[in-house]
Design goal:
The chain has about 260 residues and is mainly beta. The chain folds into two domains: about 150 residues, no CATH class; about 100 residues, Alpha-D-Glucose-1,6-Bisphosphate, Chain A, domain 4 (2-Layer Sandwich), CATH 3.30.530. The protein contains three helices and 14 strands. The strands form two sheets. Strands 1, 2, 4, 5, 6, 7, 8 and 14 form an eight-stranded mixed sheet that branches. A six-stranded antiparallel sheet has the order 3-9-13-12-11-10. A hairpin with a 2-residue loop joins β11 and β12. The chain starts with a strand and ends with a helix.
Length: about 260
């Protein structure tokens, strides 16, 4: 037997997380979480030397809009890569999986998105021969709440400037840290391709900015695509995303017109 269920339990509304997301002109509210994104950390760490086996670990997210649910799963295991053409790779893992109920309430100017953990499943897995049993990830209820309490929102801002395009773009280079990509980055949503990004400090984190500047009237217009980290208050378990967006917009206005 390559997988053994160690534990199953239900929750009853403990650890509820709330995000208040504005119906902002520059935000895309069409997604399941109305513009909120949780970060997948599951990845392949590469093959062991001289083998066709690689380690896999991290957290994966599965969305089920039809059931208003999210599956949030921490994995620890291995991928056995196919050595013959036409064969498939196989993954064997231990995991801890939480089922998260998603409640969305629509208001006139905002969405209230509530994430409620309702169940937990712990499974111990082993390799095909069951010689190796994989350690169960340490994904406790506390770590789940921490994970759900940190997310990302994406929005765009257009700001007019009296300066020409070169001067406006130079303001970003002068005032912010810039990262130049080794390979151009293609945005999965817009399809736009960028050669670099800027980083705007925000609390203890950074908002990532993709900047384009165009001639406009007697000056220029900066079009800025923002990926912004947001966190819930550790006491109230609520994040009013609109306040964070307004703070970033004010700072971008200052940079463009500096």
């Amino acid at each position: 037997m390559q997988q053994e269920v160690i534990k199953k339990e239900q929750f009853y509304g403990d650890g509820k997380i709330t995000y208040i997301i504005p119906k902002d002109e520059g935000m895309d509210n069409t997604g399941f979480l109305k513009g909120l994104y949780l970060k997948r950390t599951k990845k392949n760490y590469g093959r062991y030397p001289g083998t066709s086996i690689s380690r896999v670990a991290g957290i994966d997210i599965e969305y089920d809009p039809s059931q208003n649910m999210i599956l949030c799963t921490a994995y620890n295991g291995e991928i056995f890569h196919a050595t013959r053409k036409g064969k498939k790779d196989h993954e064997y893992s231990s995991y801890v999986r939480y089922q998260i109920k998603v409640d969305v309430e629509e208001k006139e100017d905002r969405y209230i998105v509530v994430l409620i953990p309702i169940s937990k499943e712990v499974v111990r897995g082993c390799s095909p021969s069951c010689i190796t049993h994989y350690d169960i990830p340490e994904f406790t209820e506390e770590k789940l709440i921490e994970f759900l309490s940190n997310a990302t929102v994406r929005f765009n801002v257009e700001i007019d400037s009296p300066y020409d395009t070169e001067s406006t773009y130079a303001n970003f280079r002068r005032l912010l840290k810039e990262e130049t990509f080794r390979q151009p980055y293609k945005d999965k949503v817009t399809g736009k391709i960028y050669k670099s990004a800027f980083y705007l400090p925000k609390d203890e984190k950074q908002a990532k900015l993709f900047v384009e500047v165009f001639p406009y009237r007697n000056g220029s217009k900066a079009v800025i695509y923002v990926e912004m980290p947001v966190s819930v208050d550790p006491v109230t378990k609520v994040s009013d995303v609109g306040n964070d967006i307004n703070d970033v917009k004010a700072e971008l206005e200052r940079i463009v017109n500096d």
